[in-house]
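User: Run a structure prediction on this.
Assistant: Running it now.
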Amino acid sequence: MLALILKRLLTAVPVLLVVATLTFFLMRMVPGGPFDADKNLPPAIVANLNAKYQLDKPVAEQYVIYLTRLAKGDLGISYKYVNRTVLDILSEAMPVSLQLGSAALLLAVIIGVPLGTLAAVKRGTWLDVAAMFLSTAGISVPGFVTGAFLIFIFGIWLKILPVALWESPAHMILPALTLAFSPAAYLARLTRASVLEILEKDWVRTARSKGLSHWSTVMKHTLRNALVPVVTVLGPLTAILITGSFVVEYLYAIPGMGRFFVTAVTNRDYDLIMGTTLIFAALLIVTNAIVDVAYQILDPRMKVEG
């Protein structure tokens, strides 16, 4: 297992290099630049800004300069947030997104996995129908609709929860529920399908024939094997939730990474785009490595190749 983790860490460097290279050149291929939207700026001022940020140099030279800075841990400076480095911006936004994403992931697992298991065990009953109705709604309904509904119910009607900002644990509840609703629905459907497949295995029938109770068979044997595909999707799902959802952050006025990423794209803030993209890629690598470790725990017979 330790060898697997070390192998994943070693492969992370070339992967991040490829991500950085593709992102860097794709941004330069798109017409326009960071200061083209400022129509009122005289051409001389735009030229000075390009020179200040070394955007007047050939693209290949810009790439070498960026990689040199990146190797030193310097993610650059923002073109739009004056006198702020990308590291400063992300160091402020990342903890917020980590808290929100972790809470949403925990809720998604706590709600989705038991709901899917219950639907599979009670297949064909009203519990199964109700669970699948909720999961279908969760996948189909956009996040801003879910958020608006929760704000109306708990913030405006019942007046028991705050509906904006990020000031206390109570401010986390509605955004986390909004962000978790769709992943929980997806996990419920995935868990149901996986549990149903495992329940049809011969060894499950054998366990029941030996006198094990139905729920004992499900909890001790079936669910553990059924969680393998669920764990598979938790890797990328974790990275997506932690990096934040722009819709949820905008709806609840949360200063997370999602908001900065979208504004960076619209503003052509090259270094900020690169920084957020590399953070997302790093999180994806780490969470996928954790998934591989989880495979070994769930089923020691499973060998994960590097």
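The first helix runs from residue 2 to 29.
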